[in-house]
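Recall that a protein's primary structure is simply its ordered list of amino acids. Everything else, from secondary elements to tertiary packing, is in principle encoded there. The following example makes that idea concrete.
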Amino acid sequence: MKTLLKLLLLAGVLAYLIVAFVSLSGGRDTTRCTTVSIVIADSAHAGFITRDEVQRLLSVRRLYPLGMEMDSIKGDTIEKTLLANPFIDRAMCYKSPGGRLTIHVSQRLPLMRIKGDGGSDCYIDAHGNAMRAQGYVADLPVATGAIDTLCVRHQLAPLARHLYRDEFANNLIDQIVVTPNRHIDLVPRIGCDVIHLGRLDSMQIRTLFRNLEALYTKVLPTVGWNTYREVSLEYNGQVVCRKI
């Protein structure tokens, strides 16, 4: 008897799965979309792309799926529309039974704002790729001066990645200045007027900021925050300070 009940239960489950598969894969699904779940990855790290922004982007193109027949919702069109936004890295749209649709969005995180002498104004991500500002505002380090593509790729992008990971450095640095000879100067929020890094080597960035942190945590509290006018980290393994 128990075996018979198990067989009947198994047969019922199989029948349900077959019917569900057929209904989803064949025929027109006229079920209305009643639930739209928008999932934003890394939402704690950047606020440019929000659920409201995703809804707005789709509504402008008349693609927001709530209330639409499930069969008429084109997931690939929704994905392409979202990927046209410079702050969206990946987009995935999928349907579930019961009129449910999920949109999963991965952001491109802006790490630094670039405002070059030539009039360029954009954000860059971890790889140095440009992201148009287009009205967005973020509390990020700002780089100004003689900035070109090579400088962004080989100096500013590695610096931006370090500032993103290093809380001390991120809180300390107010502005990055690229000099005409492509050297990097930092304007700190406290302490000296300028910190000279020279030409940045991505392999040395961690060491440079470890030395800078030692200066700010061990030396300046003792000698006085306004004792030095300039600090240079250009020389290998050395911190050279110039008094006011």
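The helical segments are 2-25, 51-60, 75-83, 149-165, 167-172, 205-223. The first helix runs from residue 2 to 25.
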